[in-house]
Structures are given as C-alpha cells and as structure tokens.
Amino acid sequence: MALVNAYGADMGMVYIYGVLVTIPSVICAGLILPKFLGNLERPTPSFLKADQPVDMNNLPSFGVSILVPLIPAIIMISTTIANIWLVKDTPAWEVVNFIGSSPIAMFIAMVVAFVLFGTARGHDMQWVMNAFESAVKSIAMVILIIGAGGVLKQTIIDTGIGDTIGMLMSHGNISPYIMAWLITVLIRLATGQGVVSAMTAAGIISAAILDPATGQLVGVNPALLVLATAAGSNTLTHINDASFWLFKGYFDLSVKDTLKTWGLLELVNSVVGLIIVLIISMVA
C-alpha cells in the first residue's frame, strides 16, 4: 500500500498485474525450484503440530477463509473495472471510488471478518476484541518500519539523489523497472529490511522520473513500477535479515540449507517477477 501511494498507482491495476506476475513466480519457485534442491527431508516442525485436537466443526469453511482476505482485492479490482464506464467526478464515480479506496475496502473486510469469524461463530465481544488486540500487536512493528521507511525516502528525495539517478538512466538507457528493482535489491542486501529498501528505492526512482509540472511519473506504468520494486524487496536474504533466522529456527535448518531453500526461493520469486513485469511493460 505504501508503494502504491509513493508511485501514485491504481491499486486495482496493481492487483490485476500482480496476478499475472504471481502465477509464473509461484510455478517457478514452488514447483520447479524444489526439483533442483536435492534431498531436504526434515521432520514436521513443532509449530505445525496441534497441541490438542482441533474441533473441525468449529472452524470456518475453506471458502470463507479464502474469501475474507480477498475482499479488499475484489472491491478494488471491481472499482478499477467500473471506472472504465463511469464518468469521472460524477456522483456515481465518487461513490464507487470511495467504496473502492484502500481504507474503506480494508474496513469492509475487517467488519466481515468481525462477523464471520467472531459473532457468527458464537464468540462474545470480549473474545473478538482480544483477537483484534492480538492482531494489532503483531503488525505494530511493521507499521513503525513503514513510517521510518517513508522518512528515509523523503530524506533521499531532498538530497537530490533522484536527479542523479535520472541522469544516469537517461544517458545509459536503463529501464526504470530494472533500475527500481536493482536499487531495491542492493538496499535489501545491505540492510536486510524489505520494507525500508522498497520505500527508499521508491523515493529515489520517483524523484528521478517525476514531472514537476504535472506531478506524474513519466514514461512508466506506475502499477508495474510498484511490482518491480516489490520484486526487488523480496529477493535473496542472508544473515542480516530477521526473516532468515525465523525461517531457519522454525524449520530447524542449517544456515546452508536455509540459503538453499528460503534464500533461493525469494531470489527466484524476485527475478521471475521482474522478468514478467518487463514482458507486460512491452505489451501493455
């Protein structure tokens, strides 16, 4: 979401292009890559084992479990499609785009989750509020990191480094998508922080290709630029990345095996994602 705002992209188009990017990435990283990794058989990690028998009758259905997280995407994609026929700034356009805005779409999903996972299953309000409190605690640090990344992004913009990058891109004829991906990868490898690397790269690239007169990015599709930057932030990780050690600890792997699995999986996702973005940019 922060990248979408940084580049001024349409969230619906990001979702639509994102599906096209995700499918080949999942096939390559999830189906093809494991065939080349050799024997990595391990016992089932303890965190995947239930401490006590689970009452299957008290669980939401598979369809509901999938539908609720997809509600924001469905709403925003529907808004993007509806905008093809709606006239801008008309009452209908205003209503549809209000409902399809990111905060409202997320709010609707939260209310639906509140009902389907809480009150509809017989839980009282105290249980629901405790669940929300636990969820907020788990994402509080992520929100803080996003805010810090935004501060760093603005600092980089104010230093004028974006102008230098813009000159290099114009003289070297480098694709903005490749440049966004490469800058994000380098920052990710140096800091180990995916969010910070993405927001910092967004500040550099947007400053390099922004037209001050119109406030719009020049010569790029903002939605594809979001995906290229996101692909760069989801690249090969190593020992300075907290997620590397979490994956290693949860699955009881050696550092070598973690690099062969988690590291290579993210690298394949990143490279395939960039390739698909470049292909789409040629035909879209």
The number of helical runs is 12
Structural class: mainly alpha
Write out the strand line-up for the largest beta sheet, numbering strands in chain order: 1-2
Beta content: under 5%
Shape: globular
The SSE order reads HHHHHHHHHEEHHH
Overall number of strands: 2
Instruction: Please tell me the total number of domains.
Output: 1
Can you give the helix content as a percent range? over 70%
Terminal residue distance = 22 Å
Mean of all residue-level pLDDT scores: 81
Uncertain stretches of 5 or more adjacent residues: none
The main β sheet shows up as: 2 strands, antiparallel
Rg over alpha carbons: 21 Å
Looking at the chains present, what oligomeric state does this protein adopt? Answer: single chain
Write up this protein.
The longest helix is centred in the middle third of the chain and has 35 residues, at 125-159. The chain has helices at residues 2-7, 11-32, 62-82, 91-99, 102-116, 125-159, 161-172, 176-191, 194-209, 222-233, 242-251, 255-283, and strands at residues 210-211, 216-217. A hairpin with a 4-residue loop joins strand 1 (210-211) and strand 2. Helices cover 71% and strands 1% of the residues. With 284 residues, it is mainly α. It is globular and about 65 Å long. Pfam families: GntP_permease. The chain crosses the membrane at residues 12-33, 66-86, 98-117, 138-157, 177-210, 217-239, 259-283. This is High-affinity gluconate transporter. One of its GO terms (molecular function) is gluconate transmembrane transporter activity.
Search tags:
single chain; 284 residues; mainly alpha; two-stranded antiparallel ribbon; 12 helices; 1% strand; gluconate transmembrane transporter activity; membrane; transmembrane; Glcn_transporter; transmembrane helix
